[in-house]
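call fold(seq) -> tokens
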Amino acid sequence: MKLNKMIKLLRLEKKLSQSFIAHELGVEQSQYCRREKGEINFSPEEIKKIAKILETNIAVLFNEGLNYSGEISSDNILRFVTVPEKLIHEYEKIIKQKDDLIKELRQKNKGSVASSI
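ret:
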């Protein structure tokens, strides 16, 4: 998803107006609208300010690590997470290994207690 569309998506999710963002950036609402439509590029400084206003990071604005193909609509707003899916998968594997080890140790512990009686 392009930067301008991602910014619009997040702005709508936060229920912020174009006028509010424009005011925070120090530009006219009409100029902000043109940026959001992709007619004018956002400056690097504006991108940093927008990330702060939208309470997100610049990587999310550039859609890095996200796979989103939906249309912008009130029914289809993506909920963003900051943890990449691959990292979650790795943690799940580690947790499963830990659970298996605990199960094995409990079984050994039961066996050693029963043999000592």
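Residues 3-61 form a domain with the 434 Repressor (Amino-terminal Domain) fold (CATH 1.10.260.40).
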